[in-house]
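Shall we go through a protein fold together, starting from nothing but its sequence? Please make up or recall a protein chain and show it to me in full. Go ahead whenever you are ready, and we will take it from there.
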Amino acid sequence: MSSPIDAPSAPELRPPAAASPLTALLEASLRLLLLAGLLVSVVLPLQGHPPAQLVPALMIFGVLGAGYLLLSTDGVARGVRAAGQRHPLLMALPPLLLLLPVLAVNRAANTPADLTSALSALIFAFLPPALALINTPRLRLSDVGIGLVAVAAPLTLSVAKGQVLGGTEIALRLGAFALPVLLLIFTTREQKARLNFLLLCAALMLWYGVEFGALPDVVLPPMGDADGGQYFRLAVLPLFLYTLALGGKFEGLGLRFAPAARDVAPVLGYTAAALVLLLPAALLTGFVTFRWTAPAPVTAALELVGIYLTIALPEEILFRGFLLRYFNHSLAWSPAAIVALSALVFGAAHLNNPPQVGLYFVLATIAGVIYARVFLATRSVTASATVHALVDWIWTLAFPR
């Protein structure tokens, strides 16, 4: 089966043909259902609070969810890209609207804004879209400094927030910073001509912000301190999609929710393959043990939706939808090498999940190969995210760690 990776130096895929009215209706309905599921997962932990406290939080998360699930279409992305080319400065400003709830919370609490949190919120809202707008395929000398500073920001902001780093945390941050540095060192002149370095740094900045806890903590009443960071962890998803749209890399994600008949066999086959390959190794090494959690059906279904929307789909958009395609276009290696590289990066992203981090890295790398094959077979991050979510869901229900 052909895939986007078959022609490494080829341009991005052409937009798909217009969907039939029935398919378009199904797509819109599924997006609305997923948005409803996302909001339910936000409200459930807040049962018992008066509606006057729930409504503002629901409105805020509803807007973020709409940007993530309702506006994330190829048509909207093309419009954003065209507007960004015509009015780059203007199109860098909309993400600053993400700061309004932060200001509202501080005003309602009659407390001054924490300077570090305010600065990090401003950096994360403005810099990634700005980098996408000034990005060019060919590497320029000025791109190196700007891009590396952007990547370093989330790796050091958590220290500014008072986090004390141990040796492992320092090593992980150095490894994360090494990724763009290695690309600068080891790519050829021809590869640097299509490196899109600033767009890569924008993506890494948002990823590292989540991975290393650098996103600002915003407590939205009636949420407690433990859930306060949930706002920016959700806000980063529409922000990343907006950044990809500005950079012209949204189309080709295959971010469609209406199921396609051709996707059924790869999804079922690769889900089975993932379980056959991963579970025996995890059981034999003691990485997991069988312990059925026996949740109620509704609870299990909501857990699957939560895993899909907050873990599987975001990771597939980043690692398969963006990074795999980025490595393919920039490096022009063989398909097998590109899949291996993207899987290794995916495995490395799990090195901060103790215990048994080495085994976790191996298992996650194997899973990364499988998810990459799903993406290449279907040209859809939602298909690879379905396999990803099913695997994680089964592990959560039967093999909790």
Remarks:
- Confidence is low (pLDDT under 50) at residues 6-15.
- The chain has two domains: 1-16+258-401, 20-257.
- Residues 297-331 form the longest helix (35 residues).
